[in-house]
Design a protein that fits this description.
The protein is an alpha/beta fold. It has helices at about 15-20, 35-45, 55-60, 65-85, 110-130, 150-175, 195-205, 220-225, 230-240, 265-280, 295-325, 325-335, 350-360, 365-370, 375-385; strands at about 10-15, 50-55, 90, 135-140, 145, 180, 190, 215, 245, 285. It has an 8-stranded parallel beta sheet with strand order 8-6-4-3-2-1-10-9. A two-stranded antiparallel ribbon has the order 5-7. α2 runs parallel beside α4 (about 65-85) and α10 packs across α11. The structure holds D-gluconic acid and manganese (II) ion (MN) (2 copies). D-gluconic acid binds near residues 136, 140, 182, 218 and 256.
Length: about 400
Amino acid sequence: MSNYTPQKSDKFTFGLWTVGNPGRDPFGSEVRPPMPPTKSVRKLSELGAYGVNLHDNDLVPIDATPAQRDSIVKEFKQALNESGMVVPMATTNLFSDPIFKDGAFTSNDPVVRAYALQKTMSAMDLGAELGAGVYVFWGGREGTETDASKDARDSMKRFRECLNFLAEYDLDQGYNMKFALEPKPNEPRGDIYLPTVGSALGFIATLDKPEKFGVNPEFAHDTMAGLNFVHAVAQAIDAGKLFHIDLNGQKPGRYDQDYRFGAEDLKANFFLVKMLEDSGYSGMRHFDAHAYRTEDEEGVWDFARGCMKTYLILKEKGKQWNEDAEIQGIVKNLSADTGNISSLFSSYSKENASKITAMNVDRIAYGKKGYGYEKLDQLTTELVLGVR
Ligand code: GCO
Ligand code: MN
Ligand code: MN
């Protein structure tokens, strides 16, 4: 059995904002001191992470002069080099500053939209300078509390215009980054546009360069809305659009908790990790989460270790499930096709349509059949719980 020690090849990444989260919430102030980015980089590397991700302002304060920016970036690059860490993904903070309180790319005000573009282009420059291959767009403030404020159709048009513009900027600069849209149903806005993976995928199809865009789904975001995250990820993989993923823990129907990966719904996380691994997903395993507010710095590192270790345990469990003779026997049987029936509808022909029409299906017998999913799920539960 493995000792579950993370390796660089596991591609585990953390946002600077995750281990650096000071524990502020709407009801209370910071409980942990600021974590210098260079310290996060060094410690995460020591724990086995592959890289760190950042928003522009996680590293460079919004009001830094060009000279200050350059010296901060230089020191950060040195920490990356010394610790063998990379920055695979970068993004822009288009949500904290009050200018974005009514949206960035979907603001009614063209000046705000222009500023959002200006800020994003400079954050893309920073991301490219640090070697990021993926650029995430999380539209935290792109939404409304009241639909009297703007017509959602205009918002789609504005969002599209800005993303098309940025795709051209990327190509013009020769960055060739992949753009990943991150859907979320609400928080901080009352309702956020593009609330689900499916809506993001539908929107991508309307862009000028859809091939440049994919998604960055997050466990917490679908779970908050009571949706099945594994199904959302499956749809993204099926569409060839899983460019990145945000892993964390969340109870349904709550505010965005961003718990340690695996802290909630172990079985859903088991199927998630199994799907990522079985699909050959080669992107980052990014943790967008933070330590409980009860924790000090030691707790933050316990949190980071826990995210990676649980992923590795679930990865091993997935392998075990795929190799378990009893489980596989049941699974194989479920879709058995001894009469090669599926060939009748794998492509349309008049002949196939007539054959299907002529089929004599014993509807009553099929309705009486038991599928054995109680047994299969119990075997899975036992396997996940480690008694199998
Ligand atoms: C959230 C989001 C963010 C984004 C991050 C990178 O709910 O706050 O998940 O953490 O992932 O801004 O785009
Ligand atoms: Mn989130
Ligand atoms: Mn996220």
